[in-house]
Design a protein that fits this description.
Elements lengths: L1 E7 L7 H8 L2 H4 L3 E7 L1 H10 L4 E4 L2 H8 L4 E8 L5 E4 L13 E4 L6 H11 L8 E4 L3 H9 L5 E4 L3 H7 L4 E4 H4 L6 E6 H6 L1 H19 L4 H8 L7 H14 L15 H9 L9 H4 L3 H7 L1
Parallel strand pairs: 1-2, 1-3, 6-7, 6-8
Antiparallel strand pairs: 3-10, 4-10, 5-8, 5-9
Helix pairs in contact: 1-10, 10-15, 11-12
């Protein structure tokens, strides 16, 4: 069966397991023809709601707000269980207070990694009127905007965060240190599609579980790095840095996709205190693990 899956526009290590499932033929083994579509945040949202891409991979914050608003979508699996994102400043910017009155590079004005950025700034005493978010795109585009002086700071993920460190740019805050239980990426599904095509969703999740276990196994280190260093992704050197940081050092990925209601606590707290959603339904209502349980069995 053919199924389209939406991902953020930057082909990077946050979605490593999707690249592995594709390169190792896990999708094909499960009887699926999966098309990975790399899209920006707003287009992903429209495409998920319309059913054009009935499954997406991204941070679940906007989707929680959409569920609260009554849209038929649910979180169906965990991908990245804690963030691997770091706020870097332009040269001369040495503290969060220095960001007052400046423009910051972001993937979205509210959601995605921007929620973590806004939480960091709020904790430092900066209200949303104290700075400006400029939508410039994924981590590579944010890095480029930082280097050419269009923004004063940007939240970066590997490998661009490693490049920023190598260039000596100031690290202003570490998201994994501030929020170690912040779900950074998950898989969401359009419920109308999932209920109409349960076998496809279960097969997709079986492939995902296999890919996550493949990535976590040290015996597959070389193959995992080679997959990330494929055409249109990152260099072999950057891929090795990503593996060392994200797999070996910080272990940021889920190993079996088994997201739990308590995993969403920090995310929900951020949505509530920043006014993005009252989150009245609670964590368990945002999840539907029916298909994951079948895939795991």
């Amino acid at each position: 069966m053919k199924i389209a899956v939406a991902l953020p526009q930057h082909v990077g290590p946050v979605h490593w397991s999707a690249l592995i499932a594709e390169s190792e033929n896990f999708y094909r083994d499960e009887g699926l023809d999966v098309e990975l579509r790399w899209m920006d945040q707003d287009d992903q949202t429209k495409s998920l709601l319309s059913g054009a891409t009935p499954v997406e991979r991204r941070g679940p914050d906007e989707d929680i707000a959409l569920i609260e608003a009554g849209h038929p979508i649910r979180i169906i699996a965990g991908l990245v269980r804690k963030p691997s994102a770091y706020l870097y400043g332009a040269r001369g910017v040495t503290s969060l207070e220095h960001l007052r009155g400046t423009t910051l590079g972001a993937v979205s004005l509210r959601f995605g990694s921007s929620l973590g950025l806004r939480m960091l700034l709020a904790d430092a005493g900066l209200n949303e009127g104290d700075y400006t978010l400029q939508m410039v795109g994924g981590t590579q585009k944010r890095f480029e905007a930082l280097l050419d002086g269009r923004v004063s700071a940007a939240l970066l993920t590997p490998p661009t965060s490693a490049r920023a460190a190598q260039l000596g740019l100031p690290l202003l805050a570490s998201l994994p240190q501030r929020y170690p239980h912040f779900v950074f990426s998950s898989m969401q599904a359009n419920l109308e599609f999932a209920r109409a095509q349960p076998a496809a969703i279960v097969a997709l999740l079986r492939a995902e579980i296999r890919a996550q276990r493949f990535l976590a196994d040290p015996a597959n280190r070389g193959a995992a790095i080679a997959t990330l260093a494929g055409p249109g992704t990152v260099t072999p050197e950057d891929a090795a840095l990503c593996y060392a940081e994200m797999v070996e050092q910080d272990d940021v990925f889920y190993h079996d996709a088994a997201i739990k209601p308590e995993d969403l606590a920090t995310l929900i707290d951020g949505l509530r205190r920043l006014g993005d959603s009252e989150c009245r339904q609670g964590a368990s209502r945002y999840l539907d693990l029916t298909w994951l349980q079948l895939a795991s069995a």
